[in-house]
């Protein structure tokens, strides 16, 4: 007797693909839009910058020129940007709740689907053996 798993309709497959696509794009871009992704840099511009006040030596000035930037004012925000090392306990708590919640959801759904597959394949478990 060959096992034939249930077939998913075309509409169900399309829905699954669109859902996964939306979730993937959302997971990648929502943190960017919320300003939560990457190393947040905060510009600390120098008033009336020169290459010397920006700490750029002649070799670095040549590299800026190779990039098409010859005015120190144009490089001011880039050179003086510093990492934002601020920390939020609330953001950590929210992230922990989301990660733990996701883990619990995956384990519960996997358990339910695993039991459904076992039931489809082997039928109802027999009671009274060893238990």
Describe this structure in words.
With 131 residues, the chain is mainly α. It is built from four helices and two strands. It has a two-stranded antiparallel sheet.
- Could you describe the largest sheet, including whether it forms a barrel? 2 strands, antiparallel
Strand content: under 5%
Straight-line N-to-C gap:
29 Å
In sequence order, what are the helices and strands, one letter per element?
HEHHEH
- DSSP strand tally: 2
What would you call the structural class? Answer: mainly alpha
What value does the average pLDDT take? Answer: 86
Adjacency order of strands in the biggest sheet? 1-2
Uncertain runs are: none
Domains (count)? 3
> How large, in whole angstroms, is the Cα Rg?
28 Å
The amount of helix comes to: 55-70%
How many helix segments? 4
Name the descriptors:
2 strands, single chain, two-stranded antiparallel ribbon, mainly alpha, elongated, 3 domains
Show the helix and strand layout.
Blueprint: H1 10-33, E1 41-42, H2 58-66, H3 72-80, E2 82-83, H4 89-122
Antiparallel strand pairs: 1-2
Could you write a compact summary of the structure shown?
This protein has helices spanning 10-33, 58-66, 72-80, 89-122, and strands at 41-42, 82-83.
């Amino acid at each position: 007797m060959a096992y034939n798993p249930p077939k998913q309709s075309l509409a169900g497959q399309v829905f699954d693909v669109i859902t996964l696509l939306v979730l993937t794009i959302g997971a990648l871009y929502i943190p960017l839009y919320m300003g939560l992704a990457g190393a947040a840099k905060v510009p600390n511009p120098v008033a009336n910058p020169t290459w010397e006040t920006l700490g750029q030596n002649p070799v670095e000035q040549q590299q800026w020129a190779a990039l098409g930037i010859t005015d120190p004012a144009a490089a001011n925000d880039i050179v003086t940007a510093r990492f934002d090392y601020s920390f939020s306990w609330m953001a950590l708590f929210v992230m922990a709740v989301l990660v733990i919640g996701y883990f619990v959801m995956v384990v519960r759904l996997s358990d339910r689907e695993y039991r459904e597959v076992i039931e489809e394949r082997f039928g109802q478990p027999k009671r009274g053996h060893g238990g």
